Amino acid sequence: MRYAIRRPHVGPTFVAAVVALATVTACSNGTSDGPAGPTSGAGTPSPVTSAPTSPSPPPSPTPTRTYPLSVAPLTVPAVRSHEAARGPGWRPTPQAGVVVAAGSEGLADEGRLLAGELKIAYRGAVAARAGDVELALGGKGAPESYTLTTRDDRVRITGPDQAGVFYGTRTLKQSVKGSGAMPEGTVTDAPAKPQRGLNLDIARKFFTAEWIEARLREMADLKLNQFGLHFSDDQGFRIASDTHPEIVSAQHLTKAEVRRILALAQTLHITVVPEIDSPGHLGAVLRAYPDLRLLNVQGVPRQGAIDISKPASARLIDELLREYAGLFPGGWFHVGADEYQALTVRNPAASYPQLAAAAREKYGPQAGVQDLAEGWLNDRAAVVRDTGKVAKAWNDGFFRGGVVTADKRIEVEYWTGKEIGARPPIEYLQEGRKVVNLNDEFLYYVLGEPNQFTYPTGRRIYEQWTPLVLRGTTPVPARYGPQILGGRFAVWCDLSQAQTQAQVADGIRMPLTATAQKLWDARTPTASWEQFRALAVKVRG
Fold first, then answer.
1. Opening angle at CA 93, ends 91 and 96, nearest 5
2. Which end of the chain, C or N, has fewer beta carbons within 10 A?
3. Which 8-state DSSP code applies to residue 60?
4. Under 8 Å CB-to-CB from 12, ≥6 apart: which residues?
5. Measured between alpha carbons, how far is 495 from 516 in angstroms, rounded to an integer?
6. pLDDT tens across 461-508, in order?
C-alpha cells in the first residue's frame, strides 16, 4: 500500500534519511518485525496434540516485510517535492539496466551516461523489467521539470524535454552515491529559474580545455545550465580567429578545443554563452589596431577603450561577433558594454570632442557621449540578433535620461551598483527589463581580492542570498521575481597569478554548490549550512 503524504520542499535532512534508508536495507535483507513476523490477525497457533480427533493446527503465518515511510532522496540541490511511500526503494544490481521508452530514443545519450555512472547495463529502447531504470519523454510540465517514480523495484524518470529527464538522472545518481539507493515514492521537481550557471574569465588567465570540461561536468550534476565564457579583454584574446588571427594571444583555445567543449556541454544540457566585451575592455584587440584606440583631447589613449566615432571600429567588432556567433550554437551572445572609460570622466564631451560630435551627427543636437555609447550597444545587439541570438549586456551599459534608450530585448546582467551614475536594480525592473543576477557582493570570485573584493563563501550565499538580492544585501520586491531570469556565479582573474587552476576549482566548489541550490529553489532551505555542506561532500565526492 502507498501512503500519499505530500512533502513540499523537503530539504536534505541528512541524519533522518540515512537512518530510514538503513532500516530499509535491513528489511530488504530479510529482517522482520519479530521472531515469528506479524500475525496478520491470525493469533497464536494452537499447540499440536497426539489425539487423533484433534484438528490439524493452522499454518504459522508467513513473515512479511515492512518498510518505514520513505524520505526524500539526498541530493544537491534538494528536490522540491517528494511523495513518500512504503517500500524497499531501488538500488543498482548486476541484473539492472537502463532503458528508454518507445518513442524516446532521443534519450540514448542520457541513458548511456547514467548506466556508466551506476555501473549497470544500457539496453536501449526495450521494455523495462524488474530492477531497471526507464527514461521517457512525455507529459505536461515546465521546461526542465521531471517526475521520478520508484516502485516495484523499478525507477521511471519522465519529463517534457530531454533536459528535465537528464536532471532526473542527476537526482538518481546523487541519491545512489550518497545512500546506495533511491527511496520509494515519487519526486516531482523543477527549477525556480531558467538561467543557472557559472561565468569564467579566460581572457586575463588562461584555463585549459580539460579544466573547463571538468567544470561543465561539475555544473551538470548541480543542474546548472549556462556557462558564460569571457574570452576577450585587455589582457588577452583567448580563442583562435579566422577573420582576425592577428589579435589572438599566444595562449588560447583552438577552435577544435572549443568545439570539443561545446559538444560536451550539449550532452550535459549546458549552453555556452560567449562574450566579446565592447566598447571597453578591448586592449588585446587594440594592440593590433592602435589607430582605433580612444584618445582624449590631449591625445592620450584610454586603456582598453575603442573609438566608437570611427566606422572602422564597428566593422571590426561586428566581424568578430559574426565569426563567433557561428562557432557557438547557443541562444545568447554577451556584448559587454561595461566600464567604457569615456563615461568615467567629469565632462565626456570636453574630454572626447570627437565622440560628442559623432553623437550629435547621428542622434541630433541634444545627444551626448552617453547616447553614442547606448547606440553602440543597440547596434551590436542588432548584429547578434541577426544571427538568431539574444544579446546580454552588463547593467552599467544601460543609462537613464538620454536621447537613446537601450533596446528592451537585451538582457540586463546586473553585477554592480558602484559605477558612476549607478542605477538601483529596481529601475531596470520598473522599465520592464529582464535581469540576470551576478551580484558582485555574493557571486564574484575575483583572484587576488583587489578593490575590496573578498572571496565569497558558500555559507553566505546559502544563508543570505537569493535571486531577488541583485545589489548589496537587500532584495527587490518579490513581485519582480518573474523578471529575474536567474543568475551565475562568476570567476574574474584580475590578479591572474594569485591562484592556480586547481586552487580556483577548489575555491569555487562550495560557493557554486550553494548558488545552484538557491537558483533551483530560492526558498529558505530547511537544512542548516552544516547539514548542507556535509551532504554536498557525501553526494558529490
1. 95
2. N
3. P
4. 72, 74, 75, 76, 78, 527, 531, 532, 535
5. 26
6. 999 999 999 999 999 999 999 999 999 999 999 999 999 999 999 999
